[in-house]
């Protein structure tokens, strides 16, 4: 798995839920939240994606790009993005190329819940790992959009 200080693989091609294609090089100069989740439509993944969708305006206002990835198909991601009201890319990775490139391919061939906070030049600033979705969104806000962070409990 990539760790803090590593450069992200910018040549890996992503296919958005709407069919458009891009690489992380597209977002050079912008901080990126790249979050991997196990399976579209499951309770934790839905909660995480909806949370990112709710916070996306505050992140985008600060120039932060958000991209979600799971090993589901593009068609599944298309309906999942609509269900969660996500206006950022939700990427299907059924061939598991992206999950392998980032070292997050887990049990049963699904991506583990891992979020990479990536700096404007493509270096990993922080890695958040764990099954609870809340800390992933909180870390993105704290690190990349501090003025948007909400006070903790």
Can you tell me about this structure?
This protein is of the alpha/beta class. The chain has a domain at 42-146: Glutaredoxin, CATH 3.40.30.10. Helix content is 31%, strand content 20%. The chain has helices at 43-61, 74-84, 97-102, 134-144, and strands at residues 13-15, 21-23, 32-36, 65-70, 90-92, 114-118, 124-129. The strands form 2 sheets. The chain has a 5-stranded mixed sheet. It has a two-stranded antiparallel ribbon with strand order 1-2. Helix 1 packs parallel to helix 4 (134-144). The longest helix is centred in the middle third of the chain and has 19 residues, at 43-61. It is globular, with a radius of gyration of 14 Å. Mean pLDDT is 93; it is low at 149-153.
Labels describing this entry:
153 residues; alpha/beta; Glutaredoxin; two-stranded antiparallel sheet
Q: What number is the mean pLDDT?
A: 93
Write the element-wise H/E pattern from the N-terminal end onward. EEEHEHEHEEH
Query: How does the helix and strand content classify structurally?
Result: alpha/beta
CATH topology of the domain at 42-146: Glutaredoxin
**β-strand amount:** 15-25%
Distance between the terminal alpha carbons, to the nearest Å?
Answer: 31 Å
Number of helices: 4
Could you tell me the radius of gyration in angstroms?
14 Å
Low-confidence stretches: 149-153
* The CATH homology group name of the domain at 42-146: Glutaredoxin
Query: What's the helical proportion of residues?
Result: 25-40%
Note the quaternary state here.
Answer: single chain
What strand order characterises the main sheet? 5-4-3-6-7
* CATH C-level class of the domain at 42-146: Alpha Beta
Shape: globular
CATH architecture of the domain at 42-146: 3-Layer(aba) Sandwich
The counted number of beta strands is 7
